[in-house]
Amino acid sequence: GIFISADAQPKAGGQILEMQPAISLLESAQQQMQKISADAQTAEASPADIQSQINLLQQSMTELKQAVLLMSAPKGIALVSGEHLQVSAKKNLIASAGNKADISVVKDFFIGVGNTFSLFVRKMGIKLIANQGAVSLQAQNDVMELLAQKAITITSTQDEITITAKKKITINGGGSYITLDGNKIECGTKGEFLTKAGIYGRKPQAFSKPEMMAFPLINSEDDEKKEFDEQFQIFDDSGMYVLGNIPYKITSLSGLVWEGITDDDGFTQRVETKESELLSISYTFK
Question: By residue range, what is the domain housing residue 245?
């Protein structure tokens, strides 16, 4: 391993690998994150991978037990680039700060997560503000929950509020309720039911079909490890000439289907499955 340090050693009297100041800072950062992670887990948010940090510190960094690079400076470290700066890790990327963390981006900011995204704040709340442009919050293939111990306020300062459900809407306040579905509206209460209106009338039945947004479908199975794969090459009946640029269909015993067109050499795409299973192929050649 390599240890680069700007820690003071008066008159060069210390040890060459005197890394205790650096190790102490790493231990302190680990303890801070461990406490916040425990609070997050209590609040039912996803915790940090503390064990990976412990392993990195104890099994690699301390005394340079493995092929690692440790850099330390008591007053600060700056990395700058006139163009690109890349930080990447094959496994975990860990960042912690004892006070504040500031990230500023002049144009676009992208975060892509393959599995879960957990955001936890212990004390002072969260603010998400867009000064211009729309704010879109979607759960494209699952439920969405909005929960607060105190009041929830929904306000449109200059336009309307629309609440739409494909099947049913239920509003319940203290036990009194209103339900709306495609065939009826039901109101219920154990106390008074008051209606106040300047005009009260009845008209023929009416129906407004709710417009539902279609969500894009992303095949999450692509992220799973596939241990089995197969590829076909299609020939004519004589077995001498490949059949390039013809449509084909591959079907697995479990019902998975792959369709495409063979390449110039008669090859189909390579298909992958999590388990070993029979595949059948059909194609059209005139």
Answer: 225-283
Do residues 73 and 6 make contact, with C-beta atoms less than 8 angstroms apart?
A: yes
* CA atoms of 163 and 169, how far apart (whole Å): 9
Domain for residue 145, yes or no? no
Global model pTM greater than 0.85:
no
Instruction: Tell me the C-alpha distance between 285 and 236, whole Å.
Output: 9
| Max mean pLDDT range (41-50, 63-72, 122-131, 225-234) | 122-131
Domain count, the chain: 2
How many helices and strands in the chain, by DSSP H and E? 2, 10
Nearest one of 212, 44, 49 to 140, comparing CA atoms: 212
One-letter amino acid identity for 17? L
Domain annotation covers residue 172: no
Where a domain ends, among 72, 90, 125?
A: 72
